Task: structure prediction
Amino acid sequence: MKKEKRVVRDAKVLTAFIGVYCRENHKTDGLCDDCKTVLEYALRRNDKCPLDPKPKCKDCKIHCYKPEMRAKIRKIMKFSGIYFIKRGRIDWLFHYFF
Ligand SMILES: [Zn+2]
Result:
């Protein structure tokens, strides 16, 4: 897959995952500032990944996320992963990294 295509696809998944997490946990309309920061950070890392093809982040040697961002995004992915599994969107999980 071309890098541009991957970045766009991953951005969609990231946006959906963080959106669900924020809506269910922070009860805000749209994203709260905290989640917005995480999303922007994740999108930037996604776009800047120097590896092509990009490995799953858990298999990656670089670990480009700062530890506190990594902890946050992992929590979000876990929560929203379960959310999407319950709603039959298992296919999304195989695409994404955590
Ligand atoms: Zn939030």
